[in-house]
Structure formats: C-alpha cells, structure tokens
Amino acid sequence: MKQWGLMLAKVGVIIGIYFAWFFTALYIFNHFIYQDNAWFQQNTLIFIVFNDIVSFPLMYLALKYIFKVNIFQAARYRKMGGRALVLSLVVGLGAGLFTVAFAQWPGIQSELVQFNVLFDYLYRVEWYVFLLFLLLGNIYKETLFRGVLLNAFRGVLPLFISIVLQGILYGVLFFTGDIPLSIYGFLGAVIFALIYVWFDSIWAPIAAQVACQGIQYILWHSGPKTDNLAVLTTGMAISLIIIVIGIFLAKREVRNTSTQQGAINL
To answer: Which of 263, 259, 255, 242 lies closest to 88 in space, CA to CA?
Structure first.
C-alpha cells in the first residue's frame, strides 16, 4: 500500500504542477506577453516553448524536495549506443511520414478532425522557434511522460499496463476533448514508450520525437501535397513498414544485448 500511495502522490503532484503552471503561463502569455502582430500570429508555438522552459525546473524541484528523487537518474538520462540511436531515429522517421500521409486523407481534412489545425499551429512557425520547440519541448515532454509517469506506474503495475496508462495520459493531457487526436497521441506514446523501455535511455524517445516532428516540419513546408488515395495509401504502407522494421530491429538489438550481458529481457 505504501508503494501505491507513493505512486499516486507522485503522479498527482506532477500532473497538478503540469496543469497549474500551464494555465498560469496561458494567463501570463495572453495578458502580458502576447501582442496582436504578425510575428506572434505566426509563432504562437512560442507559448509552448515558454511553458516547457519553466515546467521542467518545476518538475525537477518537486521531485527533488518532495520525493527526494533525482529526475535525471529516475528518467534514465543514460548514454545510448550508435545502433540504438539510429533505430530510434528510424522509428520516429516512420511515424512522422505516416502521420503526414494520414493527415492528407480527404476525411481527415474535414473540420471534425483537427489534424490540420494542430499541424498549422506547430509548423507554421519560423524555423528557429520550431527548433527550440523540437529540442527543449521534446526533452521536457519525454522526461514527463516516459521518464517520470511511466516509471511511477511501472513501480507498482505490470509494464504493459504502465505503458497503456502513460499513453492514455499523454493523449488526454495534450489533446483534451479531441478523441481522434487523443487516439493519435496514445498510439505514438506507446511506440515511444517501447523504445524507451527497450533501450533504457530517455534519449531514445527524444531522438524518435525529433525525427518524427522534424520530418513533419520539412514536409509541411516543402513536401508534396496530394489527395490521391493510392499515393497516400502507398505512403502510409511504406511508413508502417519502416516503423515495424525499426521496432523489430530494436527489439532484436535489445534481446541480443541482454543475452550477452545476462540481463532480464524486458
């Protein structure tokens, strides 16, 4: 029971800080920072960057002084091998290509599904704003969901259930009220959680996210646009193959490493 109480307390505090600061930052941004000019209209993503820059230290301090936990150790900020890094990038690249093709389907283009709204918000920004988001945002996001919440769950729950729970939280917290986007976020969170657990380093999902969102940004600005279902289906199929091959090779890499070291294969 003590472990359960500690887990619930940790999750509650972290999520509480997440929402408390998010709405505080939103108020500050809207009332004191945001200006109705062309730059802010294009670069509203700067709010997320602002939010993440402050959120990470708040999470660090909460874990250190309330739970006596070093966030960098708990989240597994560990060196990755070259093969692990490449496989993480491959999985992220496949996920990004799949999303770009999927988002161009005619049915997904409707106002009922907010993929285009999301992508416009994320990718219309200047490259330097997006670069800040790509690096700082993903370090914060992966530390929060994979490094803190997933590890809190897996301390008392089976790994499979822990991965599912962190995926649900990821979808709900990032895409509140939008079911299609929440499902999209859940599936991505599960994939990134798997490579995090297998490679036992927070840099694995960070690398995957950078590859995923980086290719989306490039294709949003300079990639081909089409509503041809045959082309889109082919693109999605190729992307899925890339993801499956990347995950298969990642799993095999972990199995081989664990066998050599005599470790337990997760």
So the answer is: 242
